[in-house]
Amino acid sequence: MVNNILKVTVSTLALSLAFSSSAVLAQELPSREEMWKMILQQQQQIKKLEAIVGITNVKVTENQEKIEATGEILDQVASSEGSGSQSATSIGGYAELHYNGGKADQIDLHRYVIFLSHEFSDRIRFYSELEVEHNIAGEGKVGEVEVEQAFVEFDLTENHMASLGVQLIPVGLLNETHEPPTFYGVERNNVEKNIIPATWWEAGIKLSGNLNEAFSYDLMIHSGLDTTGQGYKIRNGRKKVGKAPWKNAAFTARASWHAIPGVQVGATFQYQDDITQSSSVNENASATLFEVHTDIKHALSKNGIFGLRALYAQWNVNADSAELIGRNIQRGWYVEPSYRIALDNNHAVGFFIRYSSWDNEAGDNIDSAFNQTSIGINYWPDPHVVLKMDYQIDNFANSDSEDNRINLGIGLQF
To answer: Are residues 60 and 141 both part of a single domain?
Structure first.
């Protein structure tokens, strides 16, 4: 290529010289000194052109090498994506910021959560969830850093799978699905919080699957509660798989029915032979949990959906202990009708009212129930972003604990 350019350049200069010479001859022939100066000038111009062409050739060669290297990298990326090592890893998460009025009168970044998953093959997957609560964690701080999920899932057959690791217990409506855009109200409902108690995770092995198009199941053996020194209060018995005892594991079974589109009914049973994890037979406290729920979504118009959530949960604890008085039965229930209006493809607004009642000391004759009515609105500017407002009206047996207030929140998931 360079030789061709030089030949064309030299030929052009020669022709120019010939034409120039003819013109000069037509007028007056130059002297030998003038001719020699002209030749030297033309040689210098040729050398400059050779240098420019040489540099260009080097640049072209360098660019060709870079293009080839880039092509090799792209081939490697394409090859790795095809094998599943890159594209099989995904990230997501959610966050929610709350303002609670009334006696609390505070604002709080309640949760910031990151999901990370990886698909090793068509049959083996990994899921994890890392959560920061209340924005700041550490010794003497109000927040916590928690690994809420970290488990491997294996497909056994087309309709059945097994999972091993830290997992959410299959119970209730919120325990497994609690991203802010998926439920009404700024705070999670108090029945599932204080009775179930959501959010509740343990380490164990779970079998899940579909029996047919109408029924699905979950069976899980996992680390259990430890209410030692907690007065048998269920929520305080969670160890969150931080040096959790395995001496008295628990067993959970759930069945779900979803034969009708928009209708889901589920029931959960759990048994633990000792929620105090005691080594003494005389101090054992066996416990059973029974929970049933329904979640209904029914289209009443082109843009309107009526929703109804209802749940009942009860613990029965059997122990010979004075501390158990009243707490041998802990139960709660709520009902939540709602109506959601789709404003367009992305925007929606929803209204709800929820009546809740829960009592962690329901086994005696003393009135210790908490009753609460919440009325509110959710606005979704995007299906994955929600703005919330509700007003709660308390009717507690202990009136000093009542805190009628407005709550505001923003939440998102991605």
So the answer is: no
Report the b/e string of 175-212 with b at 16+ CB within 10 A.
Answer: bbebbbbebbbbbbbbbbbbbbbbbbbbbbebebbeee
- Burial classification of residue 337, based on how many CB atoms lie within 10 Å of its CB (0-12 exposed, 13-18 middle, 19 or more buried): middle
pTM: 0.78
Q: CA–CA separation, 98 vs 82, rounded Å?
A: 43
Query: pLDDT higher for 174 or 4?
Result: 174
What pLDDT is attached to residue 283? Answer: 73
Q: Are strands 370-382 and 348-359 parallel, antiparallel or unpaired?
A: antiparallel
pLDDT band per the 50, 70, 90 thresholds, residue 74: very low
Provide the β-strand partners of residue 385. Answer: 382, 412
Lowest-confidence segment of 18-27, 184-193, 307-316 by average pLDDT: 18-27
Out of 24, 54, 80, a domain closes at 80
Beta bridge partners of 334: 311, 356
Distance CA 67, CA 79 (A): 18
* 302 burial via Cβ count (<10 Å: 0-12, 13-18, 19+): exposed
Range of the domain at 145: 91-413
Q: Is the residue at 86 inside a domain?
A: no
